[in-house]
Amino acid sequence: MDFAGALSGDHLKFLFNGFMVTLYIAFISIVLSFIIGIIIGTLRYAKIPVISKVLALIVETIRNLPLLLIIFFTYFALPEIGIKMSITAAAITALTVFESAMLSEIVRSGLNSIDKGQIEAARSSGLTYIQTLSKIVMPQALRRMVPPIVSQFISLLKDTSLAVIIALPELMHNAQIIYAQNINYVIPIFILVSVMYFIVNYGLSLIARRLESRQA
Amino acid sequence: MIDLSILINNLDTYLEGFKNTVLSSIIALIGSFILGVIIAIFRISPLKPLNWIGTAYVEFIRNIPLLIITFFFFIGLPALGLTLSGFVAGTIALAIYTASFIAEAIRAGIQSVPKGQMEAARSSGLTYLQTMTKIILPQAIKIVIPPIGNQFINLVKNSSILGIVAGLDLMYFGDIVSSTTFVTFDVYIFVALFYLVLTIPLSLGVGYLEKRLARNH
Amino acid sequence: MFMSKSKKIAGMVLLSATLLLSACGGDGSKETSGTGGKNALEQIKEKDKIVFGVKHDTRLFGLKNPSTGEVEGFDIDISKEIAKEILGDESKVEFKEVTSKTRIPLLNNGDIDAIVATMTISEERKKEVDFSDVYFDAGQSLLVKKGSAIKGIEDLKKGTKVLAVKGSTSAVNIREKAPDTTVLEFENYTEAFTALKSGQGDALTTDDSILYGMADQDSNYELVGGTFTEEPYGIAVKKGNAELVDAINDALKKLKENGKYDEIHSKWIKTN
């Protein structure tokens, strides 16, 4: 094992650059999938005929597939039917598709957890269905959803590493390039990379716990 | 639209991968359950050192990517003198990773049983172990079954990681089929269907259990 | 009957799900590049820049040096010289990373103008891309740890594990030439070589040109048994771009005539 050689200044900089790509891709995917997740989750909750059923089928299909397969499929298979994307766009698209499906489920069960009596009360006091949803149900549900949403974001950050199969220059990819030079770099690099992921994800999970206890 | 002959001509290859995905999932499922229970016991144990090990395990493993754990067993361990095949390395990594989530689900379940019951049982003369196995665990199991079920679904999906370390699973053989047929789209539609054959029934089962257990409460 | 129908439906669901959600994702706007009736060569001249897809993990051909951030190798130097011939200045070149699996999609996407990435000219690939003349003669060989019992392809028997890279011709070749041996395929050369060094296989197979780079990096490994295939490397461009192919061929010819080619060749490839 060669800690000094593995963790030289140049290598650290190279890993840091990779981690920035990881965070960047994760951040964009998080924002997009949060928006899409809320839309899909709400549409499914509202039980609109046909649309809700179709969405249920799509969401269940995606949720039951490996993300690795979705990333691979987006980048390598979609071009065969004329949908072509850069590596970055493919990574963001695949992560967004998968995480939107996961988040929509969190949103839907969050909405379902709100007492139906409140809806009836709001409706009978003259609010429209949309108003009831956006003013009464959603704000309460969102508060309950925060902890599972944060853990989903932690998953997403970890899952970004799977984009290594399409050569996205993120943290794992750059780590591979470094340890390929010398087998004695493998363990030191693994330790450092694990610690990098750990710090960010553990930080996020502490925030989630704080939010959780504030609600209780 | 989808060329069925790809499936028919490469059925042996697909089935070989499917078999290994199922095998890896079952081994990792059993392994992660046993390890998860042990870690959960550590975490709620009144002994400080055990408690500390359990917490460190859960917090560390849950917060790093499965890919790193897999690579650690595949190319990290050989640097320390132990070489494991991609299948074995991937399966061990899956079990270790999933165990952290299962331990957390079990801990949450056990701690949701009111503390007063433990005290009552202990004061009526039962030992700590007896109280755990006879009073606390039977109640906790109902609460932890759905989240553990969900972890098992994740485990089956995550087993696709074997494809990256030549673990001879569905993902891996998908690559082999597409490099011989020069088709990617159709090949992976079939790979996806093989995964769905495993995960959809599991999801439906977990959903059913969730509903039933919720009704009993 | 029921099976095939339900599979089609499931396939369509998967497809439409991906389509729907990727449309929502609102990404990929930069990929829509209007060709405007101009051929590839004219477009390159117009933007005054040529983008080559090169390997980043292949020592001697295209390797990203983690210390400098620069890509270095035979393919890189050849690309720079071609850029010089076509656009008059080697600084008008841009490099993008490709792997054996990503290079054709990237070319067809329009992300890169040409592939200079240890790519063997084959009949199958000619259906998908257009190739220049041969710019490097490689051949498939084996890399083993020094002192290995494997001395050549005839030593690959049942139970021997040979490592290769997904999507490469060498993986297909080795299955044909040594059908009893176990072939394990990895995402890229980095992973495959790391796997060999970790004892995950007995030999690694690919073009000798790439194996020389690995042996150069780690002197515990050596090539054995010479080459058992011919792998002529070509520069690939999007199908139907005769003008660009001609311009590249002219540039290659010039480099061979003025001695530049030999200079680059001996700079990187040291045959013993």
UniProtKB/TrEMBL annotation, chain A:
InterPro entries: AA_ABC_transptr_permease_3TM, ArtM/GltK/GlnP/TcyL/YhdX-like, MetI-like, MetI-like_sf. The chain crosses the membrane at residues 20-42, 54-75, 185-204. SUPFAM superfamilies: MetI-like. PROSITE patterns: ABC_TM1. Keywords: Amino-acid transport, Cell membrane, Membrane, Transmembrane, Transmembrane helix, Transport. It comes from the Bacteria. GO terms for cellular component: ATP-binding cassette (ABC) transporter complex. GO terms for biological process: amino acid transport. One of its GO terms (molecular function) is transmembrane transporter activity. Its main location: membrane. It is a multi-pass membrane protein. Residues 19-208 form the ABC transmembrane type-1 domain. The keyword Magnesium does not apply. It is found in: Cell membrane. Belongs to the binding-protein-dependent transport system permease family. This is Glutamine ABC transporter permease.
Automatic annotation (TrEMBL), chain B:
This is Glutamine ABC transporter permease. NCBIfam families: HEQRo_perm_3TM. Pfam families: BPD_transp_1. GO terms for cellular component: ATP-binding cassette (ABC) transporter complex. The chain crosses the membrane at residues 22-42, 63-81, 87-106, 161-182, 188-209. PROSITE patterns: ABC_TM1. It is a multi-pass membrane protein. Belongs to the binding-protein-dependent transport system permease family. It comes from the Bacteria. One of its GO terms (biological process) is amino acid transport. Keywords: Amino-acid transport, Cell membrane, Membrane, Transmembrane, Transmembrane helix, Transport. Residues 18-206 form the ABC transmembrane type-1 domain. The keyword Cell membrane applies. GO terms for molecular function: transmembrane transporter activity. It is found in: Cell membrane. It comes from Cytobacillus solani.
